[in-house]
Amino acid sequence: MSEQGFGDFEFERKFFVREVPEAAALDPAPTLIVQAYLFAADGYAVRVRVQGPAPSELTDDPGALIDALADATTGTMAAKGPAVSGTRYEAERELDALVAGQIVRRAEHVVAKVRYSMWLGEDGWIIDDFLGANAPLVMAEVERGGPVVDLAIPDFCATEVSEDDRFRNEYLAHVPFGGWADAYTRELALLGPRFVHSLGENRLGGV
After folding, report:
1. Hey, how many other C-beta atoms are within 10 angstroms of the C-beta on 158?
2. CA 105 to CA 154: how far, in whole Å?
3. Are 172 and 133 a contacting pair, CB within 8 Å?
4. CA 23, 141, 11, 149 torsion: positive or negative?
């Protein structure tokens, strides 16, 4: 399950999930991701990330999380453009893990999450369980090498947020979900689930 699509473009769809699905929790090697947004405006963003095997004990402190990764850390920097119909420019390059970690430690806008991976049908899915100020947010994401069309959407996906900028990580770094979780729960109950219908046929509960 690649972080990138074709070349420097990624093709993905994102969904709000109420809790980590049982199938995802069976992942024997979840990944801890701690990432900082150095710039974010009008859909453009610059991100520095460190990641590695998730430790058994987690904390809300980004610095402690980076310490827990120890020597297993990898570092990257990515430049992103605005998303349009499930497609987004993303150029990601490797960084020295120590340098990346020191940048994230000093950054103001940080997101931390545990990522689980699983296969459902022909698609690879990732489940992100957010930590700290973004708890209790859980999101599911599916990526392909081209546009994500005619998707079988699992039952655990409560609603699609592919086109909801509030669920972009750069927004969550500045306005954490924990501060508006109750309001969103009320919004979802009032409006009900919504799915993007411009990317072929959605097959709900098809996995």
Report:
1. 16
2. 36
3. no
4. positive
**Are 139 and 160 in contact, with CB atoms under 8 Å apart?**
no
Whole-prediction pTM: 0.92
Q: What is the mean pLDDT of each run of 10 residues along the chain (207 residues)?
A: 56 95 94 96 95 93 91 91 86 94 96 96 94 97 90 95 94 97 97 91 78
Find out whether 18 and 159 touch, Cβ atoms under 8 Å.
no
- Before 136, cis peptide (omega within 30)? yes
C-alpha 157/C-alpha 73 separation (Å) is 30
HEC per residue, the chain: CCCCCCCCEEEEEEEEECCCCHHHHCCCCCEEEEEEEEEEECCEEEEEEEEEECCCCCCCCHHHHHHHHHHHCEEEEEEEEEEECCEEEEEEEEECHHHHHHHHHHCCCEEEEEEEEEEECCEEEEEEEECHHHCCCEEEEEEECCCCCCCEECCCEEEECCCCHHHCHHHHHHCCHHHCHHHHHHHHHHHCCCCCCCCCCCEECCC
